[in-house]
Structure formats: C-alpha cells, structure tokens
TrEMBL record:
This is Formate dehydrogenase gamma subunit. The lineage of its organism: Bacteria, Pseudomonadati, Pseudomonadota, Betaproteobacteria, Burkholderiales. Binds 1 [2Fe-2S] cluster. It holds the Pfam family 2Fe-2S_thioredx. One of its GO terms (molecular function) is metal ion binding. It comes from Extensimonas vulgaris.
Amino acid sequence: MGPSAMKPLPLKAPDLSKVAEAIAAHRDQPGALLPLLHAVQDALGYVPSEAVPMIARALDLSRAEVHGVISYYHFFRSEPPGRQVVQICRAEACQACGAEELLAHAERVLGCARHGTRADGAVTLEPVYCLGLCASSPAVQIGAKLHARVTPERLEQLLAESLTDAEAV
C-alpha cells in the first residue's frame, strides 16, 4: 500500500482536547477560520485531517471549505513536520537572486525533497512565498529564525548550527 493510501493514525485524546480548546476560543469571533487553524497548528505543529470535520461543524462550513483554506495557504501543514523546519522563499525577489538553486542545494544537503520530511523525521523542507526580506534576498527561515542573503555555503553553515548532532546534515 502506497503512502497516499495509508490512513492517518487517529488523534490521541490530548490532541483532540487541544483542537476542542482552539475551537472554543475562536468559534464565536468573526472570520474565525484562519485564527482557529493557526491555533490548532500552533498547538499540534499541523492541522490534522481528523480536525477538519470538527472545525467545519463548529463554524458551519463544509469540510471542503476548511480543507481548501488549509491547502491554499503555504503556512498550514496537513502532516506533522520534522523536528526542524527549513523554509526557503520562492517569491519573485528571492527567485531573481538564486532561490531556486538554493532550494535544489537544500534538497541535496538535507536529503529530502521540497514539501517533504527526511526519513529520520529530523527536518522538513518547505518552499514558501515571501518571508518579508525581499530587499535582502534570498531568504531562509530555520525554525523561527530568519536569515537574509543566503548562499549555498551559508545555508550549509546555518543548517550545521541549527541541527543537533543527531540530526546533522
């Protein structure tokens, strides 16, 4: 059975509770969907597919509407991320300054494809659109830290500093 045919594991009670807490905190505010999705992702690291029907019911939306928002915005994840997340900007300014080559270099160095997590779960590589450092392109975010004017050599240095010995590139 291929990965796309595998069913996700059911959410554990603590995670279901976190989803329920996020719903309770946001369901009555206008435009609740985005803040609610952010709250779930902040709590769990991703928005699990099991949470979609719960969120849809609470906000009187269809599951397709909720899923559409999750899949449209690059910052929402449907799968748990690796222990470290590396984001490389692919917006126009960064592309003009070598972001595509930087992303290809990151794939080789990290040993995982874009939108993927390395087999050991250490790192997830995400192409994103605009990290807000357009005048200092190309931009990379590792964890919560932004980096500007990143070259392939600088990326390797940043990764070595950011990943623990067990997760080394």
